[in-house]
Amino acid sequence: MRYINNKFFIEGKDIRSLTKKFNTPLYCYSYKNLRENVENFKKAFKEIKPLICFSVKSNSNISLLKEIKKLGLGADVVSKGELYASLKAGINKSKIVFSGVGKTKNEIEYAIKQKILLINSESLSEVLAIEKAAKKLNKIVDIGLRLNPDTDAETLKQISTGKSENKFGVDKKTFVKIINLMKQSKFINIKCLSVHIGSQILNHKPYEKMLNVLDKLLKNLDYKFEFIDLGGGMGINYDHKTKKLNYTKYKKSIIKFKNKYNCKIIFEPGRSIIGNVGILASKVIYLKHNKTKTFVILDAAMNDLIRPALYNAKHRIVPSLRNMSRSKKILEFVGPVCETTDKFLTERKFQNIKENDIMIICDTGAYGYSLSSNYNLRLRPAEILIKGNKVKIIRKRQKITDII
Fold first, then answer.
1. How far apart are CA 169 and CA 102, in angstroms?
2. What are phi and psi of 361, to 5 degrees?
């Protein structure tokens, strides 16, 4: 994705020609970016030889999952729907882990029948529910047990998952209790210690603290795990100013840990694989002026991209056509939904723009469409994938008859 003669292009396609053909709002994905992200992730951790399970909750489009499968990745799923989509995309069952704190009886039985690699459990009650389902189906089920390491991920509190006050995983005392209890089970085989401390992490130090917690636990635990699932959470550079996560420093800590405990490593990256792969193109409907600023009212809204409203997340906005003139007023990019929080970004030094101009909301590949909704009975946008010279509709724009 880059400018050529001040025009925004994705893999040789002018975004304005794409929006003219497919209308707006429009999610666009670059296959080249996707492939590079996967290759870079593999290269960064090649000495570890991890099983990389893409976090499907970050983007569950089946066409993208098919491309991810072709690039050799597995899947981390958190619902029956995500598991079904992953299987439909052809992802190998032996590369799928099922996470999440509240799996239903129906979801557990479905996962057991599919013979996936692991069901990562997060409470004693859930372990007992899996055991009951396994007994009913007369199957021995491989599971993981998620530890809550009480580690601060140093990220947004809304996406922190590794602190004791968070709902995820079990504390050390409960973890040991479950391990000892399940040693006698005829239907449950705890093969994995699972942990995940949060999302959009840009510093390797929280990961090192997490590994230290695991090390102290395993030293005193008479139990051998085949897998250590370290989760994901690797952040991306949304503002193009902050430093990226140092994979090399994180890798050194993992190698030391892996050699000590002779285990296989599982990663569950989502954002770091798909985040910068997508953009959301939107048209300027109106410009509305007051004394201090100009409201740039877009045809995209919080139902299309809720991260700014939900987390106060910042996504860069750039014009589809660059010019040298600068607006004298502050520009506030907002959507048409009837909520004050339906706004994307406030910019103090932005170029002059006009009604009907196309704006690009950047880095929306992760938790963009997957968190979208029909709030205000607005229709979800179309999604397209640009792969070389080919442009493919990978999800049609909703029609009102689809939801009414």
1. 11
2. -95, 120
pLDDT in tens, 74-132: 999 999 999 999 999 999 999 999 999 999 999 999 999 999 999 999 999 999 999 99
The active-site residue, picked from 28, 53, 338, 362, is 338
Q: Outline which parts of the chain fall under CATH 2.40.37.10.
A: 2-29+275-403
Residue with the larger pLDDT of the pair 166 and 32: 32
CATH number assigned to the domain with residue range 31-271, chosen from the 4 options 3.40.50.720, 3.90.1170.50, 3.20.20.10, 3.60.10.10: 3.20.20.10
SS3 for 245? coil
Which residues on adjacent β-strands are paired with residue 395? 383
362 belongs to the catalytic site:
no
- pTM for this structure? 0.94
DSSP notation for 271-310: HHHHGGGEEEEEEEEEEEE-SSEEEEEES--TTT--HHHH
Angle between the 172-182 and 205-219 helix axes, to the nearest 10 degrees? 50
Contacts of 5 (CB under 8 A, 6+ apart): none
